[in-house]
Design brief:
Blueprint lengths: L1 E8 L2 E8 L3 H8 L18 E8 L2 E8 L5 E5 L9 E2 L23
Antiparallel strand pairs: 1-2, 3-4, 4-5, 5-6
């Protein structure tokens, strides 16, 4: 069985596929994409967002990136469940957007 899951990131719609032998397994797989739509940048408020993946200093990052201000929102991955992803939040339970810093040792690149 397959389930198609659509997630809106800015103006873009990404389609993901969850597969399972039965309904229960398919739904369990779909829940590994445990994040909602992200319609605008948390720094500049624009909707020019994309999914981005990069490697910096040996670490793999998947993130939502703003193509206007270059801010990023990184996906978190639990240590025990490497296939589950969520968008990182700060102590106020808001998405933890990071403004682009050209002085950073690992700048986000598209």
């Amino acid at each position: 069985m397959e389930m198609f899951i659509k997630k809106e990131i800015g103006k873009n719609v990404y389609t993901f596929v969850a597969e399972g032998k039965n309904l229960h397994q398919m739904v369990m797989e779909s829940q590994k994409l445990s994040f909602g739509n992200v319609k605008k940048c948390g720094c500049c408020g624009k909707d020019n967002l994309v999914l981005n993946a990069r490697v910096a200093e040996g670490f793999e990052y998947t993130e939502v990136k703003c193509l206007d201000c270059k801010a990023s929102l990184v996906f978190g991955v639990p240590k025990k469940e490497k296939d589950t992803v969520y968008l990182r939040k700060n102590e106020n339970k808001e998405y933890d957007w990071k403004a682009y810093n050209p002085e950073s040792t690992a700048p986000a690149e598209a």
